[in-house]
Amino acid sequence: MQLLFLGTGTSVGVPAIGCACAVCRSDDPRNKRLRPSVVVESGETRILVDTSPDLRTQALTHGLSRISAVLITHTHADHIFGFDDVRGFNVHGASATPVYGIPDAIADMRRIFPYVLGDPDEPGRYRANVEFVEVSGRFEVGPIRIQPIPVIHHPHPTIGYLFEDAGKRIAYVPDASDVSDETVEMLTGVDIMILDGLRHRPHFSHMTVEQSVGILRRIGAGQSYLTHMCHDLDHAETERDLPDTIRLAYDGLVLEL
Ligand SMILES: [Zn+2]
Ligand SMILES: [Zn+2]
Ligand SMILES: [Zn+2]
């Protein structure tokens, strides 16, 4: 199994429009962060997690031309507003691409993108060929077993995803402000854990680096990564203060399991 980070930035990305701070002007490519998304791959199966507003750029950068499924974590704009670009992957394909999410997220997707489910034979229409699938528990895409991970993304309950293939487990939780004891227990001992680590200053709906490190120590993954980072965090400077088992993700980073 392999995971590629397509984007590791917070909702506005880094650099941010109109900002001239040191991180936004940095030459370190690891300080360039597109909106949050990853691809999880095993053999011929390729799963896209979230469709960020930067999806087109991300797909072209990494030569992503075919996907088996889309997973939605939640429906904030930074996670879904590239959804129309799913057309590029499948409009010429024979079968619809499944789009998985919890019932609340799928209801939002149907409301925000009502046209995608219209008459497929209507002339002149060019839209994603998808089918929405509501999930409540474990499901599979190809050889990959997937488990929704409940977390709080204040004030709403939302999810991340746990992926398991050939005895290896990797978990991706890009947006969370709190992780319950039950969820920590569910994630204990995963091989790789990826968690929200927005910045050092407290935030209403995201975790600080310090909060995230606290949760990551309890989960105790072999290796952990922070993602969904804003321009407060310089990559090299932030990593200097972290243990070796906790690193900052960056756009284009590939994790092999
Ligand atoms: Zn987000
Ligand atoms: Zn900045
Ligand atoms: Zn969010």
Can you put this structure into words, describing what you see?
There is one protein chain. The strands form 2 sheets. This protein has a 7-stranded mixed sheet. The protein has 7 helices and 14 strands. The protein has one domain (2-256): Ribonuclease Z/Hydroxyacylglutathione hydrolase-like (Metallo-beta-lactamase, Chain A, 4-Layer Sandwich). The protein starts with a strand and ends with a strand. The longest helix has 11 residues, at 209-219. It is of the alpha/beta class and 257 residues long. The chain binds zinc ion (3 copies). One zinc ion is lined by residues 15-16, 19, 21, 23-24, 231.
Rg calc: 18 Å
> Which structural category fits the helices and strands?
alpha/beta
Using DSSP, what is the number of strands? 14
The overall pLDDT average reads 95
Distance between the termini: 5 Å
Strand content: 25-35%
Shape annotation: globular
CATH class: Alpha Beta
* Unreliable parts: none
CATH topology: Metallo-beta-lactamase, Chain A
CATH architectural name: 4-Layer Sandwich
Q: Give the count of structural domains.
A: 1
Helix % is: 10-25%
Tell me the number of helical segments per DSSP (H or I, 4 or more residues long).
7
CATH superfamily assignment?
Ribonuclease Z/Hydroxyacylglutathione hydrolase-like
- For the biggest β-sheet, the strand order reads 6-5-4-3-2-1-14
Which ligands occur here? zinc ion
The biggest beta sheet, please? 7 strands, mixed
List its traits.
single chain, 257 residues, alpha/beta, Metallo-beta-lactamase, Chain A, seven-stranded mixed sheet, 7 helices, binds zinc ion
